[in-house]
Amino acid sequence: MEYTTLGKSGIKVSKICLGCMTFGVRENFPWLLNQEQTDEMVKRALDLGINFFDTANCYNFGTSE
Fold first, then answer.
1. Residues in a beta bridge with 60
2. Which residues of 1-65 form beta strands (DSSP E)?
């Protein structure tokens, strides 16, 4: 995995980011991943060296976090 520095923070983040909009409470939207699928995706991302996750409190009403 390639990493870059996040601004002037000195924090090294992966150049690949995992978007987390499909994570959260599935009852809100049928296209969301279930908890098992989410866990598998996060584990795989971490195994690959990804440490940059895009999430926000507006994704699935804040439940993606």
1. none
2. 3-5, 12-14, 18-19, 53-54
Distance CA 32, CA 11 (A): 30
Contacts of 26 by beta carbon, 8 Å cutoff, 6+ apart: 32, 33, 34
Active site residues: 59
pLDDT of residue 16: 98
Contact (Cβ atoms closer than 8 angstroms) between residue 41 and residue 5 = no
Rg (CA), the chain: 13
pLDDT tens digits, one per residue of 13-46? 999 999 988 888 878 788 889 999 999 999 999 9
